[in-house]
Design brief:
The complex is a heterotrimer of chains A (330), B (427) and C (276). By secondary structure, chain A is mainly alpha-helical. Chain A contains 14 helices and no strands. Chain A has one domain: MetI-like (MetI-like fold), CATH 1.10.3720. The longest helix of chain A is centred in the middle third of the chain and has 34 residues. About 9% of the residues of chain A have low confidence. In chain B, the strands form 5 sheets. In chain B, strands 2-1-3-14-6 form a 5-stranded mixed beta sheet. In chain B, α2 packs across α13 and α9 packs across α10. Chain C contains 12 helices and no strands. Chain C is globular. The two termini of chain C are 31 Å apart. The C terminus of chain C is likely disordered. The chains are: A mainly alpha (330), B alpha/beta (427), C mainly alpha (276). The interface between A and C is large, with 110 and 113 residues.
Chain lengths: 330, 427, 276
């Protein structure tokens, strides 16, 4: 599966590929005809924009409106609208909970993304080095982990880490760490995050690894040959050929992983519901517990909007790069 | 999940010991015209998973469908996310007609205006119910629900373990009970009691026993009362119990299901609801003959330990278009006969003294009776209470903190902020 | 260049260890599902089930409405993915191949749309659907799932479209094809692997979704499988055999689809689309 790299990257890929026999292709060749004729692009965009506006934009606007309301059980049941200005925001932003959860979410996202990207990249490079049979085997493993539906995977992890009869505790006990025999993984903040992180990284690595591998296969051998003719060693050819080539893929993948991990909800909610003592709540879980769990719907809406803003902040760097590239494109 | 069943059953200040004579709905034909007035209609009833046993459900369905010619659709609800489900359902144009609502939740839902007034029906069929049983269904002087069942905790014990440790008589005082635990501990074959750190409804019973509430009124607001020395005394009793157990201090009785632990036969006792025996037997059928029950003993033999009286009510959605049919259902579901059958089948406590007869042959209900009558109590009967029990319940956190070595005062201070926040949540 | 013995062994050794670590949770799910309860609740784990039982699958399968839920899940998932692919094809073609005003803004819209935290917007969506009187229907679910996967689908397909050499399209047009004809005859076949790969993501997302269906569809006949799985777990609590059987049933369609499509997709990506 391809990541959302810029067309130019893929075009570059194609261009490089073109060296094995076929003429290089890419943006240079095109544009003899004016590509966008009048209304055509807009007509093509209409369905996508319309459904997005209607089914995402409209709920989002509704959500903004709810965030300025005092909306609890009573108001929801009676269909009453009670505007309360910025009170929800004021309460959230002046309380310390929100900031603590925000910081925790950022750290959590950072740790998971770094682990996923580093391990995923290494495995992707390993795939490229393996023989055909071994690569197929490892690919099967990756695909299985990747394909496990999140709800099922979270359930399985609960069973693996169950304090009684859980296989992880058994193995740790047998390895000589006897205090782990009936260890309760969801009993403390750190151990709960450990399990959640393991689950998320396990499920995220395949996407990164397989994409990276797919990208490396499009690097022309000639580039390496040229590099080694120039006397580059393994490391040098990695930094001068492989890495620059993979960089756009890495950017795009990191961007997606940041979004996905930041938004990770079923994993945490299934395993700990944000516990113990609300210590593993990340922003989406916090918004859900405050909004839906405590039936403080207006408050939940406000938190969810702040969550979106924070996510935008975190990804703004990448969004800027992309927009700049778009400018250079076409 | 049973844990949440227990959680939803809240509050029922009840004093069994009132007049008798159940109301019989046999003669009542309703004010509705012809016998076929409801033909072709379907009444939707939401019950919580674990509430309605098969036998009771079958009888009530047959009776209802025969009498009204309408169809009865009982939809068993899962405890996960039930609050948002009930709230949203009540806001819809086509809500379920009848819903089960736990006692702790009832005042909050009554306040929202989503429930219909059942005052007349109460007069018609419920005049004999003990006041305490009915109390949680009343909000602002109006009857918003009708009590369905009530229950309280007992000691479920393993007869064999007790006998092997040389205990021949069931303990009558707390000191007796602790002596028995010591004997079992000494024998070394079994854990005297399995009591995790967060069996909050047992702790609430201890609070009732000390006659202290977890909240107090300050001005027009409710705030934490955990710093009260009497709360600390109750917690100390809990701590003494818990010292006999190896159960985790930061878990409640449902993770793992305490009945399943008990079923292995290596546990002397658990503080449990009567129906949990069924869970144990399902996990290990061989345990069946070893299970016994006794009332949780108090400090003295004449007054059992305080217990939390849990219960659940049936309410009619205000938005239901089948108000009359819903009432027909309630008349049948809550008839003395069917109430009695439910007590027999599920081991709940009777709604008044006259119904004690249905507990005969139900050892759990027999053991529950004395405490319910003499020392039962509730959680605070205020709409503000419901959010407190949303996970993570700060009182459970308090319990774990004390059991892990914090002083009660420190622990109270640590959770007060969260507790007060929940009590002052905007309604 | 000959690699040393060590240099040849370590990648394979690492791969084997990784394979085991990656597969173990999946293996444990299936093996627990087939083990008799006595082999599950035991102090010493049974690594390889010797007695195989279908008891747990029976428990899981006998949940009320099971087949209805399977049908609902399949309907919602397949339709959502199909619709989003069609809509995305148009959009991604425009975004990859055409120059027009507002293009940049549109790309930004879809990138941001990808971040939408759907779980916490459920109440807003619920109120809209309730007021439109569309509760307990599969239609809103299908539509919302479609939009959930649409941004990713558009942005990913755009990459695949761009990778198809323009010359192919142009030469087709020189041969007298109109642009739409060129698209159908030349680009679409080349996009097939891309479409498959992209649809995988849609499948997973729609197949897994539960906060929304939980609140929109209370009618037991209108629910989907993730609800069944999560409720199953809470009803049976510590019955890990039955829970794992349910998880297996839930995972199998996706696993099969993945193994099938992934091979095509990866090989498509590496040999097909980019080579042209």
């Amino acid at each position: 599966m391809a990541v959302q790299t810029e067309p130019s990257d893929v075009a570059k890929t194609a261009a490089v590929r073109g060296q094995d026999g076929k003429p290089p292709v890419g943006q240079h060749g095109g544009n003899k005809r004016k590509p966008g004729i009048g209304a055509a692009p807009y007509l093509l965009m209409i369905p996508a924009l319309a459904v997005t506006a209607l089914l995402l934009g409209y709920p989002l606007v509704k959500n903004v409106m709810l965030s300025f309301q005092n909306l609890n059980m009573g108001q929801l049941i009676q269909h009453v609208t009670e505007w309360n200005g910025f009170k929800n925001y004021q309460e959230i932003l002046t309380g310390e909970d929100f900031w603590r959860v925000t910081l925790r979410t950022i750290v959590f996202t950072g740790v998971n993304v770094v682990l996923t990207m580093v391990l995923g990249t290494l495995i992707g490079l390993l795939l490229a080095r393996l023989g055909k049979r071994m690569r197929f085997t490892l690919m099967v493993g990756l695909v299985l982990a990747w394909a496990m539906p999140v709800v099922a995977a979270s359930t399985v992890f609960q069973w693996l880490f169950a304090s009684r009869f859980g296989v992880v505790n058994y193995v740790l006990d047998k390895l000589g760490w006897h205090s782990m025999a009936e260890f309760n993984w969801t009993g403390s903040q750190f151990s709960t995050f450990f399990v959640v992180t393991l689950l998320i990284v396990w499920q995220s690595i395949p996407f990164v690894a397989i994409n990276l591998y797919a990208a490396t296969t499009t690097i022309a051998k000639e580039l390496y040959e040229a590099a080694s003719l120039d006397g580059a060693g393994v490391w040098k050819s990695f930094t001068s050929v492989t890495f620059p080539f993979l960089r756009p893929f890495l950017y795009a993948t990191t961007f997606l992983e940041v979004i996905w991990i930041f938004k990770a909800f079923p994993q945490i909610f299934t395993i700990s519901e944000g516990g113990p003592n609300r210590l593993t709540e990340t922003l989406p879980v916090y918004a859900f517990v405050e909004g839906v769990g405590n039936q403080h719907y207006g408050m939940g809406a406000a938190i969810s909007l702040l969550t979106i803003l924070i996510m935008l902040g975190l990804t703004s760097y990448y969004l800027r790069i992309v927009l700049k590239q778009e400018e250079d494109e076409l | 999940m049973k844990r949440k069943l227990i959680a939803a059953i809240g509050v029922a200040g009840m004093m069994i010991g009132l007049a008798a004579c159940g109301s019989d709905d046999g003669g009542d034909s309703g004010k509705k015209a012809g016998p076929d007035a409801y033909k072709g209609q379907t009444l939707t009833v939401w019950t919580m998973s674990g509430s309605n046993p098969d036998g009771w459900t079958k009888t009530v369905t047959e009776e209802f469908e025969k009498k009204t010619k309408a169809k009865l659709k009982i939809e068993v609800q899962d405890w996960n996310g039930i609050q948002q489900k009930v709230t949203t359902a009540l806001s819809e144009s086509n809500p379920p007609d009848v819903l089960e609502i736990g006692n702790t939740q009832t005042p909050a839902y009554a306040k929202t205006g989503g429930l219909a007034d059942l005052g007349d029906l109460k007069k018609e069929i419920g005049s004999a119910w003990a006041d305490g049983v009915n109390q949680p269904s009343i909000y602002d002087g109006k009857q918003y629900a009708l009590p369905w069942y009530v229950g309280n905790r007992v000691v479920m014990y393993n007869k064999k373990v007790f006998k092997d440790a040389g205990i021949t008589e069931t303990p009558k005082t707390r000191a007796d009970l602790f002596k028995a635990f010591e004997a079992i501990e000494k024998k070394g074959d079994a854990e005297p009691i399995y009591l995790p750190g967060q069996n909050w409804y047992f702790f609430d019973g201890l609070l009732v026993g000390k006659d202290v509430s977890p909240v107090k009124k300050e001005g027009d607001k409710y705030v934490s009362n955990l710093a009260d020395p009497k709360v600390a005394e109750a917690m100390d009793v809990y701590k003494q119990y818990q010292a006999f157990s190896k159960a985790p201090k930061d878990k409640d009785e449902a993770t793992p299901q305490q009945a399943e632990v008990f079923a292995k036969g290596k546990t002397g006792a658990v503080i449990a609801m009567g129906y949990e025996a069924g869970t144990a037997i399902k996990a290990n059928p061989e345990i069946k003959d070893d299970i016994g029950f006794f009332t949780i003993p108090g400090e003295t033999a004449d007054k059992p330990e305080g217990v939390f009286l849990g219960g659940s009510n049936l309410a009619v959605a205000a938005g239901s278009k089948k108000q009359d049919l819903a009432k027909e259902f309630l008349k049948i579901a809550l008839s003395e006969q069917n109430d009695g059958a439910l007590i027999k089948e599920a081991g709940w406590s009777p709604k008044n003294d006259a119904m004690q007869k249905y507990t005969v042959g139900q050892p759990a209900a027999e053991a529950a009776g004395p405490a319910a009558a003499k020392s039962g109590g509730t959680t605070p009967l205020i709409p503000e209470w419901a959010p407190v029990e949303n996970p993570p319940n700060p009182i459970k956190t308090y319990m774990t903190l004390v059991l892990q070595g914090k002083s009660p005062a420190e622990a109270a201070k640590q959770v007060e902020g969260e507790l007060n926040k929940r009590l002052s949540q905007q309604q | 260049m000959k690699r040393s013995l060590f240099g040849r062994i370590w990648p394979n050794a690492t791969a084997i260890v990784l394979f085991a670590a990656l597969v173990f949770p999946v293996y444990w799910m299936f093996s627990t599902a087939f083990k008799p309860t006595g082999d599950i609740i035991t102090e010493t784990p049974v690594w390889f089930p010797t007695d195989v039982t279908f008891e747990h699958f029976k428990t899981a399968y006998h949940a009320p409405n099971f087949l209805t839920l399977v049908r609902n899940s399949l309907t919602v998932t397949l339709l959502a993915v199909a619709f989003s692919l069609i809509i995305a094809l148009f959009a991604s073609f425009a975004l990859a191949r055409m120059r027009f005003k507002g293009r940049k803004g549109m790309i930004l819209v879809f990138m941001i749309a990808q971040m939408a935290p759907w779980e916490v917007m459920v109440i807003a969506i619920y109120m809209l659907v309730r007021d439109a009187d569309m509760l307990n229907s599969l239609v809103p679910l299908t539509l919302f799932y479609m939009v959930m996967v649409l941004p990713f689908t558009i942005l990913t397909l755009r990459g695949y479209v761009a990778a198809v050499p323009k010359e192919l399209e142009e030469s087709a047009m020189v041969d007298g094809c109109t642009r739409p004809q060129a698209f159908v005859k030349v680009i679409l076949p080349l996009l097939a692997p891309g479409l498959m790969a992209t649809s995988l993501f849609g499948f997973i997302t729609a197949w897994n979704e539960f906060p929304l269906v939980l609140i929109l569809n209370k009618d037991p006949e209108a629910k989907t499988l993730p609800l069944w799985l999560s409720q199953f777990q809470s009803q049976f609590g510590d019955d890990w055999g039955a829970t794992m059987a349910a998880a297996s049933i839930f995972a199998i369609p996706i696993l099969i689809l993945f193994v099938f499509l992934q091979r095509k997709a990866v090989s498509g990506l590496t040999d097909g689309a980019v080579k042209g």
